[in-house]
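Q: Protein A?
A:
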Amino acid sequence: MRLPFLNKRTMITANHNRRWPLAASVLLAVCSIFQAKPANVISASPYYTFATGTPQAVLGKGVAEAPLNYEGQTEDGFCLKLDLNVQPGFDDAEILGIDNVLSVCLYRDYTQKHKEQNYTGFRLPDGRVPVLQATLQLRETGKITVGLPLSMLKKPWGKHEVVLNFSGIDFTLHVDGQLFDKDFAIGYPPKEMFIRWHRNARHVTSATLFWPAAKPQRTGKKSRAPQELQYFTPRGHNAWVGDVVTCQYRGRYHVFYLYDRRGHHSKLGRGGHYFEHLSTADFRTWTEHEPAVSIEHQWETIGTGTPFVYNDSLYLSYGFHTTRITSAARRTLDLQWQQIKEYGHTVCIRHDTLRTPPAGSSYSVCTDGLARFRRSGILIHPCENPSISNSPDGRLTMLASYGARGTWTADTPDGPWRCIDENFPPGGDCTFPFRWGAHEYVIGGFTQMWMKSADGYKDMVAAGQDIYDGLSVPCITEVTGGRRLMAGWVQVAGHWGGALVVRELLQRPDGRLESRWMPELMPRTKTPKLLARLLDKTSGFNTPASSFLLSFDVVKTRPEATVSLELTSTQSPRSATWWQMDTGSGRAQFSDDTNHREKTLREGGAPHNAGNYAIEGLPTDGQRLPVRIIVKRTGKLGGSLVDVEIAGRRTMISYRQELETTRLRLTPCGAVLENVRIAPLKAE
């Protein structure tokens, strides 16, 4: 079922300076259940081929161990190919090793908690977690590990080709041509330790070592059906979305996000982040492009920046967080501050003229108008999280944070950048400005937001009027039709990084912002089931699946009405979650205890942690309030995302670890619930 008139601009965009008509919100809520075309991500191929050159050493038939004479340079890396044979019932074993350099192991059941690798999110039907894992020793700095839960393979048992490639920059694990894990190095393996190697003949029929490293080339082969955009996480057992920055350029909406593996623990705990890139022209078909900014040097880990337009070209600013890798980079920052003090403005510096690793702000330029980015090779500012935007006067503005502060302006990306207000923004990290009609705003990373008024900038958090709803580092962009979209990431499992979420913003006449689910991004559902036409007391229901869309109308019978929803699992009762709404106080909250009053951001709560928190200022002026709740569970998440939309004007989302909902209980007080429906989400 599809209603064509819903695609008309007047219906989708409405007038964002007015409140959404209730009839329109209800109609969109009903129609979204029957959405025919989901918003899918067309992923880049995860399959690669390898140009390896001539084999340098081989462990073949009849040879279980042998001396190893490594004549290459460890800076140039190596490539190791294994012919692996895995059969059910194997025991834990080292299957190949280069003494004191590399250890490749099979684990029969990796059930211990491994927060960074997230192996336990991918179990076999019998509950076991068999794992293939390789650990590389780096001189002085430590070890880096890549691995794979075997359940991710199309056929876990049997023969596989395994490729371990150390490029000098990264260490990757490919199985049957598909990339499954990657980590980044600081330092190199000790060359003098490449003395002897061995294999377990039961599992490895042959092993071949090449040097230097292979150069993997992406193929066009696809691995699976497209993934839906809402609640998107990158392919991989340990891969997540970090800070998100967005823009509209030449009719396309671009999403750049910091690609995170291991919850900020890659690259020996330094993060190892870089910018991946998605884009769409219609919000239905999303394309995954090559990385906009990748890691090309050991001294690199990329920090948050912003996209902006200059001379009709798309730019992406970002920071080098090089001081996390080496303290020597501090001298580069000191040089830039010395120049600012001497000249009163910045002086751009080319990377290749420096004797120490670069640190501070840089940028890349899109060369094809879509997805190919070229690095500038220069430093433009000592700020390590630059937020560059276009000003109405045609100039560029930077809100500096992380290593710098203040508002800076320049005529070109290269500068010179001059500070025009050293005290604004007053705080926050990853700050950036945006405008909507007569109102100007600044969002401040995880917890801060300001709106310009006649008396200066108003602290929207202190006023209880912020838009934080469980997203971390939200970014706001104007798109076609005057709509404003807010994109950010939801923290998963208590570590840095999580799932991508996009909202549509609404604006009140006084400038206050609200949010709703974006109709184009509604997940696909099966046919909804009517649970009850009217509820006036506590009622319990079994859920048809652990991922579902629940909808109902709250009809107030008195002004101070409350609604409580309990989500429980028969297998794990302790993971019960409550969502509660109180129209009298205009509050809603996620909690582990119905008797506990959670804090809002204004009160010191932490919505960005996506756990237990409250929001305030709900739209409670109507007698009938439609509520929609999506519960999204996957093994990778290790729990569920619970996403709520209230009256089409406020949203809130929470991650609930280990929650696998099998039963829900609804309790109205001072209200009745009408048209209670549930629809299972379709599997991707």
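Q: Protein B?
A:
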Amino acid sequence: MVIEWTTEDGSQPSDPPKKRAAEYVRMSTEHQKYSTDNQASEIRAYAARRGFEIVRTYADEGKSGLSVDGRASLQALLADIDCGNIDFEALLVYDVSRLGRWQDTDEAAYCELRCKRAGITVHYCAEQFENDGTIGSSIIKTVKRAMAGEYSRELSVKVFAGQCRLIGLGYRQGGAPGFGLRRMLVDERGQQKGTLERGEHKSIATDRVVLVEGPAEEIAIVQEIYHQFVEGQRSERTIAEWLNSQGILSDLGRPWTRSAVHQILINDKYAGHNVWGRTSFKLKSKHVRNNPADWIRHDQAFPAIIPQLQFDSARVIIEQRSKRMTDEEMLKQLEHILQSNGYLSGLIIDEFEESPSSSAYRSRFGSLLRAYALVGFNPEHDYRYLEINRALRQMHPSIVKGVIEGIQTAGGSAIRMLESDALLINDEITASIVIARCKLTQGGHRRWKIRLEESLRLDLAICVRMDEDNASAHDFYILPRMTLAESVMRLADYNGLSLDAFRYDTLDGLFGLAKRAPFRRAA
């Protein structure tokens, strides 16, 4: 028997309106079942069953769930919720672990609480419990959150143990090889397969990486550095000046500095030793400098460029520079460095002539932060970036003007749209110009953070990466809309072909593309 439901006027009732929902998907690299496509498929099936219409998608791909840091889409979701920029009433997530694998279950609960305060219900589509606030579901959800965090902790322990084992076998675990050395890829039998260039990584799980000698000319330079330092009694800065006078560039393709020479003089790999675990960064916690007794070592793992006796002599010279000074003298020197630079960092200390190294301060006072505190310096209160940002804002109009003039000189047209501050090129293409400040890491590596305005939906983003002094343009990235998946992009010197294919030394290519041509000639 079939029953037909009708209304009082004889018509059939229409389907109830669908509830608007957003979906959040996250994938790290742990398992294929957590791919964003699989998550989205399950979420959409859940939405169809429950009468939801997905109107927004927030996706973090290749991101760890240990914290909110680095997850631009989750940050954008929470920001939209906090400021009321939402047009949905539910958030659909694959399971508890996709929202996060926080080590503190209270932090995971707080993330969901922010949604509830805004009137948004959170649905875990692949879980066996209903997130309805009952005692049973609350208990299961808390257990699931603890299990998600424990999974990451156990995985961290296993990965660390595996890395320690590989170091003990003489294999290299991450990091640049250094000047005079190269990374060699070997198979499970130890047979060499070829060197890895900068930015290249192994693709087969059973392959390993070892260090081998680099070009003969680089080896000779490393040996000369040690000879000048040990036998010639020359300082690191003097050696760096000599290298630069000879036109010799570092392994990063940059001029030598005192700290770059200092790193060569203190790194065990030049004596053939594989040392790992000087610092720890487990579970996205703070960097911790480990006791030398806890370092993982494998002596004579690689071909030695420097004899052990000469390497030890260099280390003795460096250690004696600080041993001759009392604690008070070292702190007085640190105060002098602070007054001269207005700021302190390991790189600044290592660059200062006739000063103990940053490692000497760590050894003497337990940590650099403690040494900083003893001279009244708080690294969290560095406001120099404000001056840099102010200078870059003042520079922005001149860069925009230069782009407009370059396009017009090439025969195209470009105007500045006042409502969005973007450019309209040839009455067809919209583009924004973003200036990215250069920031040096403690290891001297350059980093840039690019913030993009997603709401404008422009065709191009012209990103100007500044040089180390933030005084002039280093290079340019011309990014089409299809590459702008995130509102914040973090760039290094090398970012893979997917991004570096859009890198240019000048904007001449953009100007050439803007040039107009007669239709007959173009055809």
